[in-house]
Amino acid sequence: MKRSLSIKILVLTLTALLGSVAVTATERPMSFSGGGVAVPITDADGHPIGADVTGSGTGTHLGLYTNAGKIFFTPDPDNPILVHPSGEGALTAANGDKLVIVVADGVQDITTGLGSGHFRITGGTGRFANATGMISYVLQQNFLTGAYEVTGVGSIDY
Questions:
Q1: Looking only at Cα atoms, what is the longest distance across the chain?
Q2: pTM for this predicted structure
Q3: Can you tell me the mean pLDDT for 23-50?
Q4: Helix (H, G, I), strand (E, B) or coil at 103
Q5: How far apart are the first and last CA of the chain?
Q6: Is the Cα dihedral 98, 99, 102, 107 positive or negative?
Q7: Which residues have CB under 8 Å from 142's CB, separation 6+?
């Protein structure tokens, strides 16, 4: 009887301890694809220096999403047909949770519209509040219409 009581107390103690351990983030594969429109931002002389980006798509951990962000372009000093994007945006899932991404590095050819690089995940809201991760992306943009398509593959930790 005494041994049975000790085992029950041990089980209850372990259950209480395990129940109070914080849930840790887990790295998971992530992918998404979508498209939208990039509206040019110009300098005082009318030269494009960036874009306000909006769009939508589907992605793992997001489902259907919308996106909005701002991108700026830095000309490549060694190659006049390349620009390096910088900026950030948010992917908003249907339930309102937001995932914030920053352009970690990238390059885009202004003659073909083809770009590639990495997005760094820097948090968000809801289940993505402390999210981290890295996503490789490929982008195709039509500079005449502003339309773009993007695909990303990488990992997310939340």
A1: 88
A2: 0.82
A3: 92
A4: strand
A5: 45
A6: negative
A7: 113, 148
CA distances from 83 to 45, 77, 148 (A): 18, 9, 16
The residue to which tokens 């999403």 are assigned: 65
Closest Cα partner for 49 from 34, 39, 57, 59? 39
Token duo for residue 126: 């809801």
Residue with the two structure tokens 């494009």: 48
Q: 7-23 pLDDT, tens per residue?
A: 555 455 555 555 544 45
| Upper half-sphere CA count for residue 56 (Cβ side, 13 Å) | 6
* Domains in the chain with CATH codes: 29-157 (2.40.160)
**Closest residue by Cα to residue 30 from 60, 58, 57:** 60
Q: Are 104 and 86 in contact (CB under 8 A)?
A: no
Q: From CA 111, how far away is CA 117, in angstroms rounded?
A: 17
Ramachandran angles phi, psi of 27, nearest 5°: -75, 130
Please give the C-alpha separations between residue 149 and each of 8, 20, 74, 116, in angstroms, as whole numbers.
59, 44, 21, 12
